[in-house]
Design brief:
The structure holds 2 protein chains of 2 kinds.
Chain A: H1 5-26, H2 30-55, H3 58-86, H4 98-122, H5 131-147, H6 151-173, H7 178-206
Chain B: H1 5-23, H2 29-56, E1 61-69, E2 72-78, H3 80-103, H4 109-131, H5 135-153, H6 160-188, H7 196-201, H8 206-224, H9 233-239, H10 242-268, H11 273-296, H12 300-327, H13 331-366, H14 377-380, H15 382-395, H16 402-414, H17 423-454, H18 476-494, H19 496-511, H20 517-520, H21 539-561, H22 586-596, E3 602-606, E4 618-622, H23 624-645, H24 652-670
Antiparallel strand pairs in B: 1-2, 3-4
Helix pairs in contact in B: 1-2, 1-4, 2-3, 2-4, 3-4, 3-10, 3-13, 3-18, 4-5, 4-10, 5-6, 5-10, 6-8, 6-9, 8-10, 9-10, 9-12, 10-12, 10-13, 11-12, 11-17, 12-13, 12-16, 12-17, 13-15, 13-16, 13-18, 13-19, 15-17, 15-18, 16-17, 16-18
The chains are: A mainly alpha, B mainly alpha.
């Protein structure tokens, strides 16, 4: 079944997901990061939809709808508003320069595939080749959180990581139970709002969103 | 309706908990605690002692309580060993509680309420430690006991010295608790069942059972005060109010002995003789160290604390010999050693409780704790002097009092060495017996010093004590408490056979073997450890002979010398002006020992020169363990924590990198 059309499309979308993850890693502009996040959400929703269609799992339709509503529309909109209000449209300077980050990212992808191969061979699902990609995009998002200096980029990295996790769940086990997925979606939404509030507080305190200011909070 | 001794014992523990809660009720105030709570606590103690005694003669009873966590209920069990320790706890705490009712009479109501709460929680938790039949309840009770006693030690927490003493105590208590927890973990072996039943049934490989033994020995030893973990004892005991010191030294240290016996004999079961040698070596070192440092002290409560260290050493000697004999397959001699150790546990609880109460009476009456300031107390405090004398004679192991009986039994155990076929061990045992003999003699010297300096001679302090101290003998309740314990010293000394029969039951229940039939059948008059032809001791006959000789001497003196007595001034060495300060001091008394055992002490001495305008001799004896063990460990801990603190960089990126690397490592190694 992996060779069927739907399988091919899922694989294509998975590749797209990974590509977007790399794009986020190399992107310097905050607004583009948000746009990429929305696109990643769209790719995720599309792949969920295809899996739902080809395996006739009705709850995956809800999941796809939820993804579209939340990750393609609501959260990017909230982030846009945040960026407007905080006036942080300019570049985010990375801590580590971009080519180095990209090289580290490639190493992570190889690592993730090496890790996922033995698991994928046991799997019988439609999308078994995609587990490595899902794991790679989780790790890449994590890497982005480490490499960026501005707090807002870290929140985007966190949300992208969550996308990768959801993709792993869809591809490996046809999705988590709907209750769990609803819970996670709500968590992510709440986290976004809480981060938003934090941003205001951080800026009020330090006049900047640069997290290096928070080193002052360390106890000596 | 009480069905078994177990229910009765649980009811007593519950009564103590209720008293703890009631002590907080502000309405009654100080009068409530004094007139009702502490006497009722004493009654509960007596009842507990009775139930404990009953349990020695009954088959073990167990029960599952409805308390605890879901699916993890508390189990309790009362067997002869637990019964014996409940008897000890109840009987000794009864005397101390009565004394406390008088001792705390001048406390402010707020402080008294807290003391009452902690005191009774402390008592109840000790009872639960003994009753516990699963590792979970045991650890809960054990830690409750440690915390309650910590707060009691720091009753006067406004003084920095007492706060640091309390911290040291809490630190070592927790180190011990960790070791005990690990020991239970090893015995349990990952089966998910922490009842003692399951731990008993577990078969351990020799390597693991030795590890479990070492952990238990370390953990319980830290609480008991064996060296080198004794450092908290001489700090915490003087810091606590005297009834609390009596309770801690008399009873709490014994719960550690209980734990050691329970884990080694009962739960681990397969005793190895090498363990016995470890216990013997540490026990001998503890005994000698304790008494030698006690001789150097001039703070009465510190001195008594060092004697607790020494007596724990004596108990360990008995236990160690018992382990050696059982390990080599001589259960009868092993049972004798166990009985000697348990008997000394009880005896030490009684006389050390008494001595601490006496020290408390002096502190209350005069505000004195330094022996160098005391003197002539026998005239102002005759009752206290009498009870203290009984305690001093008992701890010095003089017949016919109780200290002698258990030390004699320990000697008799050492004299069983010829049954061993292993030459090296056989020749070692007399060495340990010699250590015990030396310690006994030094203890006697130490209490000659204490009694002679404190109660005899001339007062060294100003004639009128400070306003808040009465200067008179202690009140009737305090005297009653001391009299109860003094009576215990005499009874346990004069009629040891009754207790021996009870301890034989404990030994049979625990090891399967007791004393020889001849020993038990010797009747109430004669104490026979093995066979009558080998050794026998009759305290009653001994007492009769002593009394007869004294009476005869008095009679002869009266008969032949009466009327020819000549009164004159004592020889004053040609120096007519004598003051009370010219008497021997406590430090002076220890000087010969300080000379002989000089290398053992860390002395800081200041000898004034001939030209010194204000000559003052000062001497400070410090514990060497601080320098070679405690301070290095403290420095190491500080060094390591400084290195670990370097991980904290204050940058989110670095923290994220930590979790990222951990994740990668886990992913890489988990597959």
């Amino acid at each position: 079944m992996g060779g069927s059309v739907s399988g091919q499309i899922v694989n294509l979308l998975a590749a797209l997901l990974l590509l977007i993850a790399f794009a986020m890693l190399s992107q310097r502009r905050v607004l583009s990061l948000v746009r990429l996040l929305a696109w990643q959400g769209a790719a995720l929703a599309a792949s969920t939809l295809i899996v739902a269609h080809s395996t006739a799992q009705p709850h995956l339709y809800y999941s796809a709808a939820l993804t579209v509503a939340l990750k393609v529309i609501l959260i990017p909109w909230v982030l846009h508003r945040l960026i407007d209000r905080l006036d942080v449209r300019w570049d985010v300077e990375p801590l580590i320069n971009i080519p180095t980050t990209m090289l580290a990212g490639i190493a992570l992808v190889i690592f993730a595939f090496a890790l996922a191969t033995p698991i994928s061979e046991m799997a019988t699902t439609l999308t078994r080749g995609t587990l490595g990609i899902a794991l790679a995009s989780v790790l890449l998002s994590f890497l982005m959180m480490i490499a960026r200096r501005k707090a807002i980029a870290q929140v985007i990295g966190f949300l992208a990581m969550e996308n990768g996790l959801l993709f792993a769940a869809t591809s490996a086990t046809y999705g988590m139970p709907l209750v769990v997925e609803l819970g996670i979606a709500l968590d992510v939404l709440v986290a976004t709002f809480i981060f938003g509030i934090f941003f205001f507080h951080i800026r009020e305190q330090f006049d900047s969103l640069d997290i290096s200011h928070m080193e002052k909070l360390k106890e000596d | 309706m009480i069905h078994t001794a177990l229910d009765g014992a649980l009811a007593c523990a519950l009564a103590w908990l209720l008293l703890a809660a009631l002590a907080l009720v502000p309405a009654g105030g100080a009068a409530f605690a004094r007139r009702i709570a502490f006497p009722l606590g004493a009654v509960a103690g007596l009842a507990l002692a009775a139930f404990g005694l009953l349990a020695i003669w009954e088959p073990p009873a167990s029960r599952t309580l409805v308390l605890g966590l879901p699916d993890l209920p508390f189990h309790v069990r009362l067997d002869p060993l637990a019964g014996f320790f409940l008897f000890l706890l109840g009987a000794v705490s009864a005397g101390i509680s009565v004394n406390a009712a008088g001792y705390f009479r001048a406390e402010a109501p707020g402080r008294l309420a807290l003391i009452g709460l902690q005191y009774f929680v402390f008592l109840a938790s000790m009872a639960m430690v003994v009753l516990a039949d699963d590792a979970y309840l045991f650890m809960v009770a054990w830690e409750t006991m440690a915390l309650a006693s910590y707060f009691l030690v720091t009753t006067d927490h406004d003084q920095p010295a007492i706060r640091s003493a309390g911290f040291l105590y809490l630190l070592i208590a927790h180190l011990g608790a960790i070791a005990i927890l690990l020991c239970f973990g090893i015995m349990h072996g990952g089966r998910g069942d922490y009842t003692f039943e399951a731990l008993r049934a577990a078969e351990l490989a020799p390597y693991w059972s030795t590890t479990a033994f070492l952990l238990a020995f370390f953990g319980f030893g830290a609480k008991a005060g064996m060296i080198p973990l004794h450092a908290w004892l001489p700090e915490a005991h003087p810091a606590a109010p005297s009834p609390v010191s009596a309770l801690m030294s008399g009873v709490m240290l014994k719960t550690a002995i209980y734990g050691m016996v329970r884990v080694v004999y009962d739960l681990i079961g397969d005793v190895r003789w090498e363990w016995g040698l470890v216990v013997l070596a540490i026990g001998a070192a503890t005994t000698l160290f304790g008494v030698l440092y006690a001789l150097m002290q001039h703070d009465l409560k510190r001195l008594l604390a060092y004697h607790s260290v020494e007596n724990i050493g004596i108990i360990l000697l008995g236990l160690g010999m018992s382990l050696v004999f059982i390990g080599f397959g001589h259960p009868a001699a092993g049972a004798l050693g166990l009985i000697a150790a348990l008997y000394h546990t009880l005896n030490h609880a009684v006389f050390k409780g008494l001595l601490f109460l006496g020290a408390g009476a002096i502190l209350h009456s005069r505000g004195l704790r330094d022996l160098n300031d005391m003197g002539g107390l026998v005239r102002t405090m005759p009752r206290t002097a009498l009870y203290f004398l009984v305690g001093a004679l008992a701890i010095s192991a003089l017949p016919p009092l109780n200290g002698f009986v258990s030390e004699w039994l320990t000697f008799q155990t050492a004299l069983q060495a010829p049954v061993l076929r292993e030459g090296a061990v056989r020749s070692l045992l007399p060495l340990f017996a010699a250590t015990l003999a030396l310690a006994g003699a030094l203890t006697a010297m130490c209490f000659v010093k204490v009694y002679g300096i404190a109660f005899l001679g001339q007062p060294r302090e100003p004639r009128h004590p400070a306003r808040e101290h009465s200067g008179r003998d202690c009140g009737p309740l305090e005297q009653l408490g001391m009299a109860w314990l003094a009576a215990g010293c005499v009874a346990l000394g004069l009629f040891p056979t009754a207790m021996l029969a009870a301890l034989d039951r404990v030994s049979v229940a625990l090891t399967g073997t007791g004393l020889a039939d001849e020993a038990l059948g010797a009747g109430w008059l004669w104490l026979v450890p093995t066979t009558a032809s080998q050794a026998a001791y009759s305290p009653v006959i001994f007492l009769v002979v002593i009394v007869a000789v004294v009476l005869l001497t008095i009679l002869l003196v009266r008969r032949f010398y009466h009327g020819r007595v000549r009164y004159s001034h004592p020889w004053d060495c040609g120096f007519p002006e004598q003051t009370a300060r010219m008497q021997d001091t406590a430090d002076a008394f220890g000087q010969p020992i300080r000379h002989v055992f000089g290398p053992l002490y860390l002395m800081k001495r200041h000898l004034p020169g001939a030209e010194d305008p204000s000559p003052r001799f000062t001497l400070k004896i410090e514990d060497r363990h601080w320098y070679w063990l405690y301070l290095p460990v403290a420095r190491l801990a500080e060094y390591v924590s400084a290195r670990v603190a370097a991980l904290q960089r204050g940058r989110i990126g670095v923290y994220l990198a930590y979790s990222f690397l951990t994740l990668i490592a886990l992913l890489a190694f988990a597959t």
